[in-house]
Amino acid sequence: MMEFVNNILYRYQDICKAGTFEEQRRFDVIKKLYLIDNKLTRIQLADFYRVDEKTIRRDERKAIDELSIMMFGIDALNDMSKTRRMSVHK
Fold first, then answer.
1. pTM of the model
2. Distance CA 45, CA 51 (A)
3. Tens digits of per-residue pLDDT, 14-63?
4. Residue 38, class by beta-carbon neighbours within 10 Å (0-12 exposed, 13-18 middle, 19+ buried)?
5. Could you tell me the CA-to-CA distances from 85 to 33, 34, 45, 62, 82 in Å, in that order?
6. Contact in structure between 46 and 40 (CB atoms under 8 Å)
7. In whole angstroms, what is the distance from residue 68 CA to residue 80 CA?
8. CA 14, 61, 47 angle in degrees (round to 5)?
9. What are phi and psi of 80, to 5 degrees?
10. Which H, E and C letters describe the chain, residue by residue?
11. Whole-angstrom Cα distance, residue 84 to residue 19?
C-alpha cells in the first residue's frame, strides 16, 4: 500500500514540477507540511514564499483534493465534500 502512495506522490511531484510556479509551490507546501522530517508551519511557508497564509492553506487544500482524486478517484472528492457540508450544518 505504501508503494502505491509513494508512486502517487512521485507522479504528483512530476506533474507539479512541470507546471506553473503555483503548481510547483503546491507540491512544495504538501512536502514541507507533511513529508519531510523538519516540517514547516503554514506561517513559515507563507513567509518563505512571500504570500498570505490563506494562499498556503488554499495550496494545501487544492493539493489534498488532487491527491485524493489520484488515489481514490473522483468519488472520493465528492464524498469528502458531502462530509464537509454535513459537518457545517450540525
1. 0.76
2. 8
3. 999 999 999 999 999 999 999 999 999 999 999 999 999 999 999 999 99
4. exposed
5. 25, 25, 28, 17, 5
6. no
7. 9
8. 85
9. -65, -40
10. CHHHHHHHHHHHHHHHHCCCHHHHHHHHHHHHHHHCCCCCCHHHHHHHHCCCHHHHHHHHHHHHHHHHHHHHCHHHHHHHHHHHHHHHHC
11. 29
Q: Pull the grid cell for residue 50.
A: 512571500
Task: Name the residue type at position 59.
Answer: D
Query: What is the grid cell recorded at 1?
Result: 500500500
Locate 21 and state its grid cell. Answer: 510556479
Q: Is the Cβ–Cβ distance between 29 and 62 less than 8 Å? A: no
Instruction: Take residue 4 and report the three cell numbers written for it.
Output: 502505491
